[in-house]
Amino acid sequence: MPYSFPLGPYHPALEEPFKVKVQCRGEVIESATVEVGFSYRGIELLAQKRNWVEVITLIERVCGICSNTHAMTFCMAAETIAGIELPKRAAHIRTIIAELERLHSHLLWAGVGAEDIGFHSLFMEVFTLRERVMDTLEAISGNRVNYGMNCIGGVLRDIPDPAAHLPALDALAKGLGEIVIPTFTQNPTALARTRGVGRLSREQAVEWAVVGPVARASGLDIDVRKDQPYLSYADLGFESVVRPEGDVQARVVVRALEMMESVRLIREALLSLPPGPLRATQGLPEIPAGEATIRTEAPRGEAFYYVASEGGASPARVKIRTPSFVNIPAIEPMVMGQTLADLSIIQASVDPCISCTDR
Amino acid sequence: MTADTMTADIESTERAFPRLTEALRAIPGVRSVAARNGALWADAPLLDVEAMAAAMAALGIRLGTVTAIPHPDSAESTVIYHYIDEHRIINVKTCTRNGALASLAPSVRAASWAEREIRDLFAVEFPGHPNPVPLIRPEGIDTATLREAMCRPATVARKPSSPLASPPASPPAPPPARS
Hints:
The structure holds 2 protein chains of 2 kinds.
Chain A: E1 2-7, E2 19-25, E3 28-35, H1 43-46, H2 52-59, H3 67-82, H4 88-116, H5 120-141, E4 150-151, E5 154-155, H6 166-186, H7 188-194, H8 202-208, H9 212-216, H10 224-227, H11 233-236, H12 248-271, E6 290-298, E7 301-309, E8 317-321, H13 323-327, H14 331-335, H15 343-349, H16 354-358
Helix pairs in contact in A: 2-3, 3-4, 4-5, 4-12, 4-15, 5-6, 6-12
Chain B: H1 3-16, H2 18-26, E1 32-36, E2 39-43, H3 49-59, E3 62-70, E4 77-84, E5 89-95, H4 110-122, H5 147-151
Parallel strand pairs in B: 2-5
Antiparallel strand pairs in B: 1-2, 3-4, 4-5
Helix pairs in contact in B: 1-2
C-alpha cells in the first residue's frame, strides 16, 4: 500500500524550514517533491531600496553561514561595474576569510551529518574543531558570523599579525587528518550509513545542473576557484577534489579533503600576505551606470550575482542565485529507490541552505 | 572601460572563442554579441528562447539562472538568461512578449525553479512549463508579489544613515521624581 510522508517543513532532521514530500511503498521511496519558500524575505527587492553601502550589510544576511561570500560577491560586482581594481593585500585577506568560512561551513555540515546518522561522539569532535575556526574568524573580524569585512574596493579590517593564526591551522590540520577524515572514511558506522546511499550519477549531475561539492562528488570537475580564478586563487594555486561515486560518502570525502586544501590556502595566504593598502577607494563609492555578472565558489558551490546600476545612490537590480537554489532540486533523483530511513542523511548530504534559497 | 579597450576585448573574445561567438550570433533573434565586464552579452529583444536552449545544449553549456527586471511603464519585463561554460558567463538578454516567454523547463531542468520564481514575483508567464505551481509564493497570494514594489523608484540617501550617527535634537526628559 503506497503512502506519502512529509519531511518538514518543521522537522528535527532539518536545520531550516523546507519540505521533502515522498511517496513510499513499504520502506522504499518511489518519488519525491521538494517545496521551499517558507522563509522568503525579498532581499532582492530590499537591495534596491538601500544605498550601495547599506546593501552590503543587507546582502551579508542572505545566509548565516556563507555570509561573507554574499557580501564579497556583491562588492566584486560593484567593483567590476566601477572598474575598481582590488589591492593585492585586500584580495589575500578576502581569500583568507572566504576559506575560513568554507572550513566553518563544512565543519558545521560534518557535525550535522554525524548527528543525522546518530554518531554523537563524532559530532562533538567536529564541533570542537569548528570552534577553533570560529575563534580565528572572531580574532580577525571581531565577529563569529556576519564578519563585516567587505567594502566596495577592499576590506575594512587588516590582519596585522598573520603568524598568530598559524597554531590554530596546525590544530585544525591535525584534528582533520587524525580524527574527522579517518572516522568518516573508515569507521564502519559512518560507512554503513553513507556508502552507496543517495547516488547522483554524472549524467544526472549534468542534467540537474548541480554545483559545488555535490557536482564534484558526481565526477564533475567544476570549481570557480580553478575555472575562473578570482581574488588570490591564481597566485596561491588550487587543486580541486573530485570523486566519481556520486553517493553520500563521496560528498563527505569531497568536503573533508577540501577542508585540507582550505587549510593549505589559508596558511599560504597568511605567510605571503603582501604589503599595501586595504582599500582602493576612500569615502563613499560612486558606481556608474552598468551591469555585471559575477560568480564565486561559496562553501556549497557556485554563487551567482547579477548587479545593475543606473548611476544612482542604490543598485537598480540585484539578482542572487545561491548554490542551494540549484542543488536542492537534485534531492528528488537522489532519494528515488532509497529507504525512508536514509532520507534524512541524503537531504543533509546536499548541505541545503534554505535561508540562501529563499532569500 | 574605454571604447578602445572594449573593442579590443570583443576582438580578443572572437579570436579566442570563434565557435562560441558564431554560435550565439546564429541563434534566431540575436542582434549583437559583445564582451563586457568579463562576460559575453548577447542582445536579442525578439529571441527564440527554445532555439537558444537547443544551441546551448549542443555546445554543452549549462543554464546558471534567469533574471527578470520588470518594466515600470508596461506589463513587459526584461529577461536575462545566464549561461555558464565554466570559464565565463554568457548572458542572453531578451524581453517578454505580452508578458510571456516560452518555457525552457521541458528540456532544461535548471530553468524550472527559476521560471517558477519569476512567475511568482513578476507575473511573467512561461507557457509550456510542466509544473507551473508556486515556488516561493504562499498559497492564496496572487502572482507579481514584488512587481509593483520593484518598479517604484527608490528614495534613499547616498550616505548611509544610522540612528547613532547624530545625537537627538533635545535631550530625553528626566524620569519623573518619585514621591
